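note to self — DONT lose this again. spent like an hour looking for the file last time. sequence + predicted structure for the chain T wanted, 367 res
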Amino acid sequence: MKVFISLFCALSLMTANASAAPVRLKDLVEFDGVRGNDLVGYGLVVGLNGTGDGMRNTPFTGEIMTTLLERLGVNVSGEALQPKNVAAVFVTASLPPFARVGGKIDVTVSAIGDAKSLLGGTLIMTPLHGADGQIYAVAQGTIIAGGASVQGAAASVTKGVPTAGSIPSGARVEREVAFDFSSLRRIRLALRTPDFTTAARIEGAINSSFGKHVATMEDPGTVSVDIAAARQGSPAHVLSRIEDIAVQPEERARVVVDQRSGTIVIGQDVRISRVAVAQGNITLRVDEAPIAVQPDPFSQGRTVVVPRTKASITNENGKGLAEVSGDTSLSQVVAGLNALGVSPHDMIDILKSINAAGALHAEFVVR
């Protein structure tokens, strides 16, 4: 319990210090138009050690293999192909913003048939398409799978997911996304966590940095910047100056609990009204100690079992009511709950009850 109290207090101090420090705009907002694009492709993995698709259950694997061999000049028409070292896969990737032709990106490979494992497999040249149907990259390479599978005559063991893997720098960019960034006259900053106060602070910080009115708050999630009014060269120069401006974000009072792991995260601005808390574990114990009563010698009686039961109800912690005064801060809440000697899971139940009583002034999130 002492370790838990120390850890909770340390996390509270770290949260207080972190919330007081300003954050760069590049860590708070997304620049409109500067975004990645998702790519997807359908390909073939070869070189598997008998863990590929079964052609009877996945006929599309045989079709793509036949098409690929015919493109390479191999005539397999009418042949009944039954290889076990081939698997059909989906290949996914994200094309980063401003990616240029010849650059490399990471890809993820996932089996779509009944393949047992992709360990040791090699992805054959696979075109990756965007949402517009155009080919933006081509993937190929050896797959690094994140699992293992062992199978015997009567049992099998699987660790991780051997039917999915990745290829670092496995795709080469073949087409660039058409986006004329240098012609922008105005750009919008999209807040990752929309908030009126934070947006107003961003607007004021940008205007103070440029010494003129170039930024306008449109809504709690958007701040518009006039590139032409900034007169600092190209839009890239303007954004390079904006993204290093430090702003202190405003955070909502929030309590997040994870019931499975017993994790509790309490925001710095959480307040609790005056409330009384009682916590204790009630133990009910019933002990059975029957006694066998024997009859006297040479008597006509018989042996009788006499039941004897001892029942008790005890409170293990023995804690009474603990009162929390009004407008309590985070450190006082933690100290008050720890004074009851409660465990993390018991603390979650207490926070739920305080929230149900209407005394917890914060957003309560349960995962």
